[in-house]
TrEMBL record:
PANTHER family in alphabetical order: DNAJ HOMOLOG SUBFAMILY C MEMBER 3, LD25575P
GO aspect biological process, one term: protein folding in endoplasmic reticulum
Protein name per Swiss-Prot or TrEMBL: DNJC3 protein
The organism of origin for this protein: Pampusana beccarii (Western bronze ground-dove)
TPR repeat start and end residues: 91-124
Record-linked SMART domains: TPR
Pfam families to which the protein is assigned, alphabetical: ANAPC3 (PF12895)
Gene Ontology cellular component list: endoplasmic reticulum
Region listing for Disordered, in residue ranges: 1-21
Stretches assigned to coiled coil: 127-154
Length: 227
């Protein structure tokens, strides 16, 4: 504006300055809402800012934190993936994405993202620790599924027991393991045990189609046709 003043440019410059002041005010309000744990308000304010400041990685990371607190992990992943691209060597974003996928039970995607973190920094303590955990779990699940394909149901049951011991905290893995054990017992002509385990799964997930099918097979083996 100083180097080449004209009416049009002055008007545009004043508009941008006014918008800039407004965005700074919204940013302060968003930070305040976040600190007060009013995540819904913080998200709403950050939406307004990011509509203009599309390429701001830190604002996306802040909104991702709010989404995590609000129980919307898929939206958090979307913002963190953008932040990982916008900021170079963003190991923290890759770590958080991997953690979210892991908590959701998607161990394969979790492993992929934590590897991206370690590509940037092979000495990253949090990523390395998570990598070891996810890799171990991933290997056990792959091994168990291979045993099922080979019809070695007893071995597969033992392997899924190991999965539950490897990850006792994140319940989705225990539920999935029980679902597969229920399948193995049904296929292995152990209907009484299959019905028991399938029922445990269905108490947690009443619409689990796999558990319903496997329990139905077990009921057939027991001549319990109504069931």
């Amino acid at each position: 504006l100083k180097s080449n003043p004209s009416n049009n440019e002055e008007k545009e410059a004043q508009t941008q300055l006014t918008k800039s002041d407004e965005l700074q005010r919204l940013h302060s309000q968003a930070l305040s809402a976040y600190q007060q744990e009013d995540y819904e308000t913080a998200i709403s304010l950050l939406d307004e800012i990011l509509a203009v400041c599309v390429w701001d990685a830190e604002l996306r990371e802040l909104r991702a934190e709010c989404y995590i607190k609000e129980g919307e992990p898929s939206k958090a992943i979307s913002d963190l993936k953008a932040a990982a691209k916008l900021k170079s060597d963003n190991t923290e974003a890759f770590y958080k994405i991997s953690r979210i996928y892991y908590q959701l039970g998607d161990h394969e995607l979790s492993l992929s993202e934590v590897r991206e973190c370690l590509k940037l920094d092979q000495d990253h303590k949090q990523c390395f620790s998570l990598y070891k955990q996810v890799k171990k779990l991933n290997k056990q699940i792959e091994s168990a599924e291979e045993l099922i394909r080979e019809g070695r149901y007893e071995d597969a049951i033992n392997k899924y027991d190991s999965v539950m011991k490897t990850e006792p905290e994140v319940t989705v893995y225990a539920t999935r393991a029980k679902e597969r054990i229920c399948h193995c017992l049904s296929k292995n002509q152990q209907p009484t045990e299959a019905i028991k385990v399938c029922t445990e799964v269905l108490q947690l997930e009443p619409t689990n189609v796999n558990a319903l099918k496997d329990r139905a097979e077990a009921y057939l083996l027991e001549d319990l046709y109504e069931g």
